[in-house]
């Protein structure tokens, strides 16, 4: 028996988003935030994600403006940078992941930190006005917060802070939410990860569904 | 105030896996399956994932043997292929994703299917004995099942079927589980995705934690 199934990508997206909007409690999101939440839920395959998503005031607007102005997107992992849909970007924005730069292992040894955290030191020349997307490593988010304690460190426009897991993820996101050095978005607790982070970026990049 | 946090990657992994083993109900998994389930839960940030994970008999053994014998890993999305930790692979196995092959858009138009499904047609020369990893597109998993209805289609050694989402994901995984053309692993229902799929691959590739 041959399987029959929906083969039209646009129809699949439309039905997916309809289902999410029918099932998820999205009432507390603004009109600017709602499409981001919908895509994040879509990537997670879980309407219950909604209750853990937090946007600081102005996050969606600031993040969109930065991309429209040509800002780069700085990602902590290749699974994040590879997931960004290039044709959605409004200004052919650069998507940068420094994790596999050959200098990183030695930098990590010197810093006594993970490679994910050390790789952020290579963000400095790109950081001013950038959209930051941390979707994997809690150590990267903690290190970013420590970098931003220095008033001379360049400021990104906005931070998506969605590392996932059992050690440091909940804590690093709580720290970002408490600090709010710039407008930010988090998924509270252990949930998060590259797919949810990519979904937020893709929704910021374009309103097209 | 500067944040202090665990900066040792090995310690973070060890504590994460300890937490998962303390919290998750893993009793129904065999000794061969348990490390796969633990890593999949780790990637999801959710101990509740355990109840949705299904391994067919012999899956873990077959999948491991195929990689040890040098089989390639065929991935439906770049977020999957990019996530595979190369130094864990036992035989410098090839990791193949054909989604961005320039022939794919035209093939998809001709087939009246998604690019994710069309890209699988380019797997045929690599499919015999391969480890297949579908972590994104339900249409890819449905198309693979239809390809395998043809007895002349080469057989992979094992299939990780973990597409995510609201249209076709649950259905395509249920179809794989009912058919079992070769040993397979699924996450029942809507949950799944590239991170969980990559975690399964990385656990199959090496027992190192």
UniProtKB/TrEMBL annotation, chains A, B:
<keyword id="KW-0413">Isomerase</keyword>
<protein>
    <submittedName>
        <fullName>Precorrin-8X methylmutase</fullName>
    </submittedName>
</protein>
<dbReference type="InterPro" id="IPR036588">
    <property type="entry name" value="CobH/CbiC_sf"/>
</dbReference>
<dbReference type="InterPro" id="IPR003722">
    <property type="entry name" value="Cbl_synth_CobH/CbiC"/>
</dbReference>
<dbReference type="GO" id="GO:0009236">
    <property type="term" value="P:cobalamin biosynthetic process"/>
</dbReference>
<comment type="similarity">
    <text>Belongs to the CobH/CbiC family.</text>
</comment>
<comment type="pathway">
    <text>Cofactor biosynthesis; adenosylcobalamin biosynthesis.</text>
</comment>
<dbReference type="GO" id="GO:0016993">
    <property type="term" value="F:precorrin-8X methylmutase activity"/>
</dbReference>
<feature type="domain" description="Cobalamin biosynthesis precorrin-8X methylmutase CobH/CbiC">
    <location>
        <begin position="12"/>
        <end position="206"/>
    </location>
</feature>
<dbReference type="Pfam" id="PF02570">
    <property type="entry name" value="CbiC"/>
</dbReference>
<keyword id="KW-0169">Cobalamin biosynthesis</keyword>
